[in-house]
Amino acid sequence: MTISTERLTIRHPKISDSLALNSAIVESISELRKYMSWANEIPTISDTEKNIENAIKLIESNIDIQFLIFTKDNDLIGSSGLHEINWQVKKAEIGYWVRTTKTGNGYITEAVNAITNYGINELGLKRIEIMCSGSNTKSRRIPEKLGFTLEGILKRHRINSDGTFDDTVFYAKVI
């Protein structure tokens, strides 16, 4: 499954992506661990392979659909996906991260827009959610730019990796 945009190729992960994905995670670990609980430890290539194997199983079972994001010249720049899919309600959550050296180029906005449209137009989803840390202003800009509605702020809802309490902001696009 591949989604193409003007600048990006967005597709399901393959085991052969392990080295490139691991490199992107390791490069970005200090940024990722601020907000992503799965980034507390630096993964080995074997850890990344296992993660991809698990992602493939979840895709095949239609529970969670992970995507890797590449530039048109095949540079892996991040990951996203439709998570916690509820087929009865026809909803999913989008999560995302971008390689530290590729931030500020609008790649994630472009990818999230494409994945949102895929979820609505191809999968028939009626609700797409984005939740992120209240202090993560870069991440918050994505749903705001894409016309998601801020549905709520859960105060003191999470603890960041540095031990500070933070809010969770909750956005949704409803069809």
Characterise the protein shown here.
Helix 1 crosses helix 2 (45-60). This protein is 33% helix and 35% strand. The model has no long low-confidence stretch (mean pLDDT 95). By secondary structure, it is an alpha+beta fold. It has one domain: Aminopeptidase. The chain is globular, with a radius of gyration of 15 Å.
Structure summary, number of beta strands = 8
Count of helical segments? 4
CATH architecture title: 3-Layer(aba) Sandwich
Task: Give Rg in angstroms.
Answer: 15 Å
- Indicate the percent of residues in helices: 25-40%
Number of domains: 1
**Structural class from helices and strands?**
alpha+beta
What is the name of the CATH class? Alpha Beta
CATH topology: Aminopeptidase
Give the overall form: globular
* Percent range for β-strand residues: 25-35%
The largest sheet, given as strand count, sense and whether it forms a barrel, is: 8 strands, mixed
CATH superfamily: Gcn5-related N-acetyltransferase (GNAT)
Averaged pLDDT: 95
- Low-confidence stretches are none
Give the CA-CA distance, first to last residue: 23 Å
Report strand order across the widest sheet: 1-2-3-4-5-6-8-7
Order of helices and strands: EEHHEEEHEHEE
Write a compact overview of the structure shown.
By secondary structure, the chain is α+β, with helices and mostly antiparallel strands. It contains 4 helices and 8 strands. The protein has a single domain (2-124), classed as Gcn5-related N-acetyltransferase (GNAT) (Aminopeptidase).
